[in-house]
Specification:
- With 285 residues, the protein is α/β, with parallel strands linked by helices.
- Strands 3-4-6-7-8-9-10-11 form an eight-stranded mixed β-barrel, surrounded by four helices. Strands 1-2 form a two-stranded antiparallel ribbon.
- The termini are far apart.
- Strand 3 and strand 4 form a beta hairpin.
- It has helices at residues 3-8, 22-25, 31-38, 41-48, 87-96, 100-117, 136-139, 141-150, 170-182, 196-205, 214-217, 224-239, 252-259, and strands spanning 10-11, 29-30, 52-61, 64-78, 84-85, 124-128, 157-161, 186-192, 209-212, 243-247, 265-267.
Length: 285
């Protein structure tokens, strides 16, 4: 079959000897998804065996870069032989085999559990993809229960909306955000400045934190256009009483410019790379 035929065809796996009938019609899925799942045993085993771990990158005060304000939990997978699987491969395989919901849920639960295991007392930012959540009160109950189980103030955890450019149903996203807040969590919007969609979400969602896209931050000290754009975004966030984080800071000159921009916090290799256990940031010299 051609690639187009595989994409358009729907199929279902049946036990040997069982005939296809009306009862199986509702069980059909895209053939491409079924084929992907055949090669996804390693991912399903990783989720079932809880072989997801997290590296932590500090988010620091703009004027006190050696002092961590928070940490972002960044997912890693581990194969049985110890090989590390990075997020790009995990997410791509999950998407192809329609396991994104399962991976996202496992990541949220393990991020909470492991952050507490490390004894972190700072806020912890945890990424989540809103497109995997179809009903907040059902899909997020395991996340809420994990926070209750570890006995930590849910306000310590900040759920960070990723893939904001792909959010097509803003009212649904708002229901998710409101559910998180009703449970005591805080929320952040990632990659502000990457496109109009994320900018439009800022005013509608009014998150507790907003992160500026690393492409906007990179080289900002030498780019007058980026400076004007970032300045306006900071002003808008301040008017909405939203705290701001510039991510992807790698050079002293970028940090020095950001110090006068009104940004509240910064994150990037200049202060610390992601690591496990959570690293202490260093003051740039």
């Amino acid at each position: 079959m051609s690639e187009a035929e595989v994409e358009g065809c729907r199929a279902v796996f049946l036990p040997r000897g069982e005939d296809f009938g009306i009862a199986q019609l509702m069980q059909t899925q895209p053939l491409s998804t079924l084929l992907s799942r055949l090669s996804s045993d390693w991912l399903m085993d990783m989720i079932d065996d809880e072989r997801l771990s997290f590296h932590y990158q500090p988010i620091v005060h703009i004027d006190r870069p050696a002092e961590p304000f928070a940490y972002e939990a960044l997912m890693r997978g581990q194969m049985p032989d110890g090989t590390v699987v990075y997020p790009g491969k995990l997410l791509a395989q999950a998407k192809a085999s329609e396991l994104t919901f399962h991976l996202d849920r496992a990541a949220r639960i393990n991020a909470i559990r492991q952050a507490v295991g490390h004894g972190l007392s700072t806020p912890v930012f945890i990424n989540f993809n809103p497109t995997t959540i179809y009903e907040p009160s059902f899909c997020l109950q395991t996340t809420v229960k994990e926070a209750e189980k570890v006995g930590v103030d849910p306000g310590q955890f900040v759920f960070e909306v990723v893939e904001s450019e792909h959010v097509g149903d803003v009212p649904h996203l708002l229901r998710i955000i409101n559910y998180y807040r009703e449970q005591g969590f805080r929320v952040a919007l990632d990659d502000l400045g990457a496109g109009y969609a994320s900018l439009n979400l800022l005013a509608q969602l009014k998150p507790d934190f907003v992160k500026f896209d690393r492409e906007l931050v990179s080289g900002v000290h030498a780019d007058s256009f980026k400076q004007k754009v970032l300045g306006k975004l900071v002003e808008m966030a301040r008017d909405l009483e939203i705290q701001t984080i510039a991510e992807g800071v790698e050079h002293i000159a970028e940090w020095q410019w950001l110090q006068g921009s009104g940004v509240n916090y910064v994150q990037g290799y200049l202060f610390a790379k992601p690591a496990n256990p959570p690293p202490m940031p260093v003051h740039p010299r």
